[in-house]
Design brief:
It is built from no helices and 4 strands. The two termini are 16 Å apart. It has a domain of 39 residues. Strand 1 and strand 2 form a beta hairpin. Strands 1-2-3-4 form a 4-stranded antiparallel beta sheet, with no helix packed on it. The chain has 68 residues and is mainly β. The radius of gyration is 12 Å and the shape is globular.
Length: 68
């Protein structure tokens, strides 16, 4: 993640390979998505926490920008 003020590094959120989507809620919750065939496709993170508090497997691949 990067700061919108100056594009400096502003944390990391771990998932699996092939990330292809991200969305940030008004409360700061981060949703990250991957194009994964055998891993969860969507990972949810609380603000400032790099460990996902919830993961979802879609049963199909998440399209690019699929969390927009």
């Amino acid at each position: 993640m990067f700061s919108t003020a100056d594009l400096s590094a502003d944390g990391r959120y771990g998932s699996a390979a092939y990330p292809n989507a991200v969305a940030i809620a008004d409360d700061g919750t981060v949703a990250g998505g991957i194009d994964g065939s055998s891993e969860p496709d969507i990972y949810l993170y609380e603000p400032g926490n790099s460990s996902a508090f919830r993961e979802y497997e879609l049963g199909t691949n998440l399209e690019s920008a699929g969390l927009a």
